């Protein structure tokens, strides 16, 4: 009995101990499970935070991409607007030059008529020369303005060939020396060798030297000194144009080749510029693979422009062939088609004076009718006629089997390559840009004779 009681007591003790131990085990497991859950929750929270940050980054990236697309669209729009504005500017400048050149034709021809008049007095001849110089100056300003626009739009191409620099300089001097002489200035030329050669465009390099020497004369007082020294240094031709004129201020010197940059001009100056000539010079020189630099000690101390061009060997020249002499004749039958009454009248008078038989027409249709009705040796036709323009007149004439095939000389205020190409395609044999050089016109007419 006692034994049973002892056994029961022990069993109850064991049950009590087991009951005490079991909750502790469950609690530990529960704690471990809770800790594991907390870790998982922390991991999920970290992942969720990373996802939110990623979504925020994606949103920002999407927004930035939308801004980038809008910026690209706006940039393209601005580029299109700029190109359209540049195209309109070039078209306007070409039209402006054409309209400004038109009145220069009768002015130039009238001055030539005065010079050739049998009753011209010395004073009248002097006035006539002044008119011609100012016409040439006006034409040069228009050329500079147009060239600046063409260069900026990449529309100028060079016809590169080996050429004699001395011959190029001679052509430039033919233009500027009369003005230098008129102002009593002294011009000194130091040409190391007449065999100096450069690979370039003859017309454009002549333009460069004309501009630089003319600029030196313009900014040098009456009686001043201008010099041009040309020599070869290694593989380069170096030309230095110097003067003892007004000089260039230190603050202007770094920008002297920029567009529309000019030095100070006194009120007494009788001629100025547009501030584009030197910009055109720099661009043309760069297109030739050369460089140009300006130096001046300061105001009133003169200036110096140093031009460097790649040198090249000149081809051997063939012996001069005897010139072809055109026999004198009774003149040509010439038809002038020009809607400007003053230009038409002066052209007719000018050609009449040279012994040609001249008829006129004031519009394209009347000119074409005259050409189909009777034969002419030469037709001098303005391109910009109202209604039927000169291109259509010539195209219809060339397409017709009637009438003679006269030498066709086109006159226009537009001088770009595409303008010349259209005239040639229409059937013109020659293309002269206004104001027409009277001697060039006479030479073309005389060649037909």
TrEMBL record:
Keyword Transferase in record: yes
Keywords: Coiled coil, Kinase, Phosphoprotein, Transferase
Subcellular location: Cell inner membrane
Catalytic activity: ATP + protein L-histidine = ADP + protein N-phospho-L-histidine
One Gene Ontology molecular-function label: phosphorelay sensor kinase activity
Coiled coil: 34-71
InterPro entries linked to this entry: CheY-like_superfamily, HATPase_C_sf, HATPase_dom, His_kinase_dom, HisK_dim/P_dom, HisK_dim/P_sf, Sig_transdc_His_kin-like_C, Sig_transdc_resp-reg_receiver
In-chain residues carrying the UniProt-annotated modification 4-aspartylphosphate: 382
Response regulatory domain span: 333-449
Group of enzyme by EC: transferase
Membrane topology: Multi-pass membrane protein
Domain Histidine kinase: from-to ranges: 95-313
Known EC number: 2.7.13.3
Any matching Pfam family: HATPase_c
CC terms in the record's Gene Ontology section: plasma membrane
Protein's name according to its UniProt entry: histidine kinase
Species this protein is from: Massilia litorea
